[in-house]
């Protein structure tokens, strides 16, 4: 246990922006999809030119022991076929790794574990709009064998370079074999979920505040429903990455597996706990946004009713002089007060008094 006492510190550092930088994609001038290839013996990286290729790395592993860790970024079928043949990877897993767009899952093919993780990157924005991108997703596929570990990344984010560097600084952890790397990646991905969840929480709080903030005369009139709907769509994308991963984490933390070191397996429980927390947060976001959207639509309906009441009130007030003018606009010779000297000012005065009475009554009842 002393060999893995600092496991959490090694794979869960403080969140730093440069950890998720777009820095591990392949060089466009380099035809190979291999980002890094190394052999680790007794937890330490072997400095040898032979280890720079998958074939050479495996020759050294089979001769001297240890395990190979190979990282690839968006390989083509032809590029990955060579590696698949070298390590005896199952064709179905190879197809999933090349074409991507997979749900998070854990599958066993012969003597290899195939794990899929969805990576999440929060997109910084100055203002939330109806077209704002909140999260971007990528994928990390992991092949875990007895003496090799292969990662296949898709998307421009989800860097593993910083993680590899940190694990190399803890040789007692890497000495546990490929399962230590699998745990490191799982913990790294779930920690990314936590950071994104905190950022999305701020967006949800902002929208909630705007929806329920009083407008003129203390009446909340809501916000653009498109902004809420866009945020809900992004939260749904987040949920699709988090929710399916719960079952693989449960299996890795509870079911004994020959390819997972028992000491390392205990730490998958911690990852599963953090994943449960994120899952509850994302589910809460989804439900809260449903309530916010409904409240926003209700406020829009109330605001429309408020406007209609005002229009109706003014129409009622205007109806009085309209009626009087309509009556005295008729061309009859014998009408009351037509020949009276004070008839005209009296009619105007009565009309004004009636209009003021109606206005006061409607305002007292909250219609104006």
Give a description of the structure.
Helix content is 54%, strand content 14%. It is an alpha+beta fold and 368 residues long. The protein starts with 6 loop residues before the first helix and ends with a helix. The relative contact order is 0.10. Strands 2-1-3-7-6-5-4 form a seven-stranded mixed beta sheet, with helices on both faces.
Number of strands: 7
Q: Output the structural class.
A: alpha+beta
Widest sheet, order of strands: 2-1-3-7-6-5-4
The portion of residues assigned to helices is: 40-55%
Q: Radius of gyration, Cα only, in angstroms?
A: 34 Å
> Could you tell me how far the N terminus lies from the C terminus, measured between alpha carbons in angstroms?
75 Å
Give the overall pLDDT as a whole number: 83
**Unreliable spans:** 1-31
> Strand share of the residues?
5-15%
Order of helices and strands: HEEHEHHEEEEHHHHHHH
Shape: rod-shaped
- How many helices in DSSP terms? 11
Major sheet size, sense and barrel closure: 7 strands, mixed
